[in-house]
Amino acid sequence: xxxxxxxxxxxxxxxxxxxxxxxxxxxxxxxxxxxxxxxxxxxxxxxxxxxxxxxxxxxxxxxxxxxxxxxxxxxxxxxxxxxxxxxxxxxxxxxxxxxxxxxxxxxxxxxxxxxxxxxxxxxxxxxxxxxxxxxxxxxxxxxxxxxxxxxxxxxxxxxxxxxxxxxxxxxxxxxxxxxxxxxxxxxxxxxxxxxxxxxxxxxxxxxxxxxxxxxxxxxxxxxxxxxxxxxxxxxxxxxxxxxxxxxxxxxxxxxxxxxxxxxxxxxxxxxxxxxxxxxxxxxxxxxxxxxxxxxxxxxxxxxxxxxxxxxxxxxxxxxxxxxxxxxxxxxxxxxxxxxxxxxxxxxxxxxxxxxxxxxxxxxxxxxxxxxxxxxxxxxxxxxxxxxxxxxxxxxxxxxxxxxxxxxxxxxxxxxxxxxxxxxxxxxxxxxxxxxxxxxxxxxxxxxxxxxxxxxxxxxxxxxxxxxxxxxxxxxxxxxxxxxxxxxxxxxxxxxxxx
Length: 498
Known about the structure:
With 498 residues, the chain is mainly alpha-helical. It is 47% helix and 6% strand. It contains 21 helices and 8 strands.
């Protein structure tokens, strides 16, 4: 059974969820008794419900587009072109408010996803063993499926934290959340510590229960998905030793590593294929599903007849040219080309999502986003190690550069003093993870601002926002006004009018 067919059945499971999403509420309403009876009567029904939770990754307001593009576009890795339509204008110009569509739409995607996970976890243990089924097998599946749901709930919550909260365990404004279905829609924001604790609890329990389920899968939760997310969570909250330990659960496995040839790196990004680098990507099991991930249509937008791009988002010249000419990533991440709407000069088109040939019939330059990669895990450990053992950090930095830059002279890294080393780790993270949805969050957690100056007529003047300081209140997205109108207990982030 394909994912698309399964998603339809899970719509029954979340019927009240979608109604409340339209009402812009917190989406913690329970399923109807009919839906529960229909879904949770067999382990097959539970698998359908679980697939519905996975379907969250297909949303354009999540990893289908926004969560991949916006963190680079809001920061300094992307420019909104002068000829682009009005998409993301308020985000790119740092003018967002509690009614900005993107801030509302992500909230309205993530909370229904948490609701689905809550309903699943509240019901999965009630599933009976049917005639002809092996009781031990059913029990094992229920345990493993719960691990999937907990890990996914942790990811949804953490991605909400990244947008709407500070990475400060002493801060009072965490998420409003519950971990079980409820009819109550009035919820105060819990502290960041309480939110973090719930994320960590879910991940630890999932890690203990998952075993080797789907260990070789790149499209389902497994022990490596959990470890990669743990490494990321701990890094953000400066739990250096825990981030390193989580990263080692992946980095000590021989099958993971860097692609170190241009051909294989291209396969990673063009063909979505790498057993070494990819830890998790959303599943695309049929061509029709590729339409959910047409990121390259926004970044390239080729003219069919003339094959000339007309992208909405482009790369800043200085950033593209900061990659060494020998760097394998330069030719894969960027495409220097003339553009239909800008005749004066060629510009740097972002080519990281060129379109998987397997989905060519879709004609939308679709690629599966890589939500977890070996390189990010290595960078997590690299940065965390800087605060514990700088020699380890240097070794990891050398390994990444040797893989990406043929003939790289590692003695350059040996000569770095402590300040230079930290800056180079951060710069390497910017380069390696460019256009994957990390830059905004990295600057935010480092307490660094940035400057976006006008660099050509291809950039609208109003998009050159100048200096964005680290204390700008818009590093926290606003709680959507529609949510606060329904949930009166949910406090707004400081700085926003309502």
